[in-house]
Amino acid sequence: MLLLETSTPDPVAATISFFDSELFWKSVAVLAIVLGALLARVIAHFVVGRVVDQIVSGVKKRQRVEDTQAIAASPLAAVRVVQRTRTLGSILNNISSILIVVIAVVMIVNTIDNTLIGSFALLTAALGAGLGFGAQNIVKDVLNGLFMVAEDQLGVGDVVDTGQATGVVENVGVRITQIRDVNGTLWFVRNGEIVRVGNMSQGWSRVIIDLAVPYETDLESVQSTILSTANELASSSRWRARIIDKPELWGLESIADDALVIRVVLKTRTTAKDDVARELRIRLKRALDTLDVKLPSLSAVVLSGFEGATSVGGVKGPRTTPTATVTTEHGKPVRLPRALRKPKAPPAPEQTPPAQRPQDGGPVPPQTGPRS
Predict the structure, then answer these.
(1) Which of 11, 55, 178, 286 would suit a FRET pair with 31, their CA atoms being 20 to 30 Å apart?
(2) How far apart are CA 256 and CA 214, in angstroms?
(3) 298 and 254, same structural domain?
(4) What is the pLDDT of residues 35-48, one digit of tens each?
(5) Are 178 and 190 in contact (CB under 8 A)?
(6) In whole angstroms, how large is the CA radius of gyration of the chain?
(7) How many domains does the chain have?
(8) Model's pTM, two decimal places?
(9) Do the Cβ atoms of 147 and 140 come closer than 8 Å?
């Protein structure tokens, strides 16, 4: 009787052979690449964040404040450095993450099969040629976003008008800028579609107030009262820090049959325009009440100057040719200047009534009017 000897596999030898296999070392290499990519991303974000924090903390130290909100309360250009630095930091973080992912994918493909790298390169070239036309907008968005931030055209927290949307900038990404308007709507605007930027948060703002007083009012007395009231506001301890320059009385803006429009302006900080304008209106109302000046009842005041546009955060876009249209409480229309009147329509031609047919069947009388 013959006994067949069956050889049992040696687990130690199998384990050694597995660790010596090419699959194991390729798996280790892929895992090392993934871990290296994650580590590189963490290091890149740490370096960018460190640089941003150093710049921001340096600005705070020079301005002797503890937080960025205190910097934003001043008209200094330092706040622009803080906003631009943080925006550039977020963009650099996104770009570094994309580059690290692309490099890691190429290294993983080369590790799995080095013969695939040639095919991968050809595929990448073909995709690049194919996407070169379709990805033009993406490249345009990225480059335009970088230039807008680097040139300090806008930053997070600015009130801007990009044409497509007007509001407060909440985020500036690599490709998309997020703007929240006065109604709370969040607009996603592609950076490549922004051809012009109206930034209402840089430098200073201007409060423009037009007062319509009755035609028979003593103009010199009213103008003196308006200017003195504005000067009192500018010199008060509460509002002194928010007003940059002395108030200016631009004088009589327009004349109508029943009203005179007087304009007064103040140069303020961008963040304080609304508050200063409201306080000035309240004080002007009280001052005119002491003079017993009754403002005409205005059912419609259409201004085509700075105050004629819609506002976002108290900032209004400029227009040209400031005029005013006033309607009195009696409904009497205001006579406009001759240059602004609409041309009268030509009178309609007289129509001749049709000839009546005689009832007795006699001849039709001749027509006396012009024939059509």
Answers:
(1) 11
(2) 9
(3) yes
(4) 999 999 999 989 88
(5) no
(6) 37
(7) 3
(8) 0.52
(9) no
